[in-house]
Amino acid sequence: MRAYSIAVYLFLYAPIVLIVLFSFNSGNNASDFQGFSTLWYGKAANNRFVIEAVTHSLIVASSSASLATVFGTMAALAIQRVRGAARLFFDAMTYIAIMVPGIVIGISTLIALVTTFGLVNNILTTIWPGDPATAPQLGMGFGSIIAAHTLFSLALVIVIVRARIAGMDRSLMEASADLYATPWGTFRQVTLPLILPAVVAGFLLSFTFSFDDFVVAFWVAGSKTTLPIYIFASIRRGVTPEINAIGTVVLTVSLILLFSAQFLLRRGEKPKAKAA
């Protein structure tokens, strides 16, 4: 059993360790370690295509994570007040959204956007006062990627914030209402500080998932190239130490964000444990 466990962990983590190791390779071959060097990190940092792809990924991840955090928190607060069959329905819809494969979200979003853009573009061409050829046209790009990433991150934020709301002491909000605080005042001074660790954790996880996503972005990116799409296009010509360096940086940033989110969630649970 111990040997089986070790084999499983080696299978999971050995490729990651190799990527990190060969990112410091001084040679040009990704699988022939010829000496320690940070050469490829410098080349990746000076590659304008990498910088452009990273910029696109940061724009998409920050925008989609912000939208998912705001709307997910609002939805979590609203669903908490729903009871009965409606509550079961919303719970089912939330968990189904998490379980749906990314490729299904990507294809369905692509079909929905292409259909919508086709209808809107026809209307714009019809009502445009000047030359119809100069009428503005909607197309794939930042908006479509942000919409798709917000869609699958929204359910994640709802689950995280609702778990925090379920552990809150309701007597604090009732006491605020007894002291004639307005609903907005109760939310701003009582509810929000209590759920803030979960809200921030939801943002960090949404940012990480959006930044690392390839499957959904591949379908709806249009002419925009995010970092995962750039890496996929690059490795079709062969894996280089530069790709290993980019992968190592992405892995490090992702782990930092994930551990930060986990830290915030555990920190939010401490008051409840102490109270118990």
Automatic annotation (TrEMBL):
Membrane topology note: Multi-pass membrane protein
Transmembrane annotation, as ranges: 7-24, 58-80, 92-120, 140-161, 190-209, 215-233, 245-265
Pfam families linked to this entry: BPD_transp_1 (PF00528)
Record domain ABC transmembrane type-1: where: 54-261
GO CC terms, sorted: plasma membrane
Gene Ontology process terms (BP): transmembrane transport
Entry's family note: Belongs to the binding-protein-dependent transport system permease family. CysTW subfamily.
Protein name, per record: ABC transporter permease
Species of the source: Hypericibacter adhaerens
